[in-house]
Amino acid sequence: MTAVRKLDHRFVEVVPPELVSGILYVSLEYGTMIHLCCCGCGNEVVTPLSPNDWKLTFDGQTVSIHPSVGSWSLPCRSHYVITRGRVNWADDWTEEQVAKGRARDQAIKASAKQLEEVRLEPVQMLPEDRKSWRTRIGRLFRL
Ligand SMILES: [Zn+2]
Fold this sequence. Notes:
The protein is α+β, with helices and mostly antiparallel strands.
């Protein structure tokens, strides 16, 4: 088990069956990223790309992903931040912190979903509304 300190990136369409340690595979097609855990345990870590999940920054040479990668469900419980291709190890989170982080994520996702539902709702103006609007505008301008 060798810990990885640098993460190279590969833009791929589909993820290859055999992943190489130290490489972050990015599929824009499927909106996801995958890499082998940087601690060297060999587990695959999937970080989906979405406004509510992870964001990828590509500066033309290296990649950064945000927020940090916390593999709380893996035995290694690795937690690191990938900035400009470098793996910066972060503190192990307590169960309480993990729970808080998850709750926050869920809250963000729930509010995003709500917003989407609101946006999807068709805006319909009933004829009466239209009339009342006209009356109101008429009053406003004393027509
Ligand atoms: Zn690991």
